[in-house]
Amino acid sequence: MLVLITYDVSTETPEGRKRLRKVAKECVNYGKRVQNSVFECIMDSAKCFEVKEKLVKIIDKDEDSIRFYYLGNNYKTKVEHFGVNNNNVDVEGVLLF
Amino acid sequence: MLVLITYDVSTETPEGRKRLRKVAKECVNYGKRVQNSVFECIMDSAKCFEVKEKLVKIIDKDEDSIRFYYLGNNYKTKVEHFGVNNNNVDVEGVLLF
């Protein structure tokens, strides 16, 4: 299934910037960065549980947030992209404009 | 249906920062800001077409990107949130942890 991970990590302090780097670094292990704070991950429930557990441990729950969006298996028509494609986005079937 | 709008707007120049403000300002008219560059909009296809047209006109296609995710009508179990809830997120049915 396609799982979208979006995050806001407060970068006002060095600790925050460290958390941001950690979150991004962890997400890279599970999916493709499609925007600065947005990753698309094709994974099963077990992997999803795993990354969720890891990310929740990294963030400061009073400062940061993470959201997970479950787009299922038939995601090809559920995503549209406009503009620059900085991050070598090539998620199969995504409509590029 | 729930439409997720995520964007990356280059803020390296004053023009970029202006575009960022414009994109955010436009998105506010259509939905709820759930993270810095992530909006959740409950809208029909006509409204979606409208906001898409507006946003695509604002961005610089060589610098910025916008993505649309279509989560359909049964979105309540498709979103999970962890951590801080800065933006008064109260999208009905979203699981908060």
Structure characterization notes:
2 copies of one chain form a homodimer. Chain A has 97 residues and is of the alpha+beta class. Chain A has a single domain (1-70), classed as Alpha-Beta Plaits (2-Layer Sandwich). Chain A has helices spanning 14-28, 45-58, and strands spanning 2-8, 32-35, 38-42, 65-70, 79-83, 95-96. In chain A, the strands form 2 sheets. Chain A has a 4-stranded antiparallel beta sheet, covered by helices on one side. In chain A, helix 1 (14-28) runs antiparallel to helix 2 (45-58). The longest helix of chain A has 15 residues, at 14-28. Chain A is globular, with a radius of gyration of 14 Å. The two termini of chain A are 24 Å apart. The A-B interface holds A 4, 6-8, 34-38, 52, 55-56, 59-71, 77-86, 97 and B 4, 6-8, 34-38, 52, 55-56, 59-71, 77-86, 97.
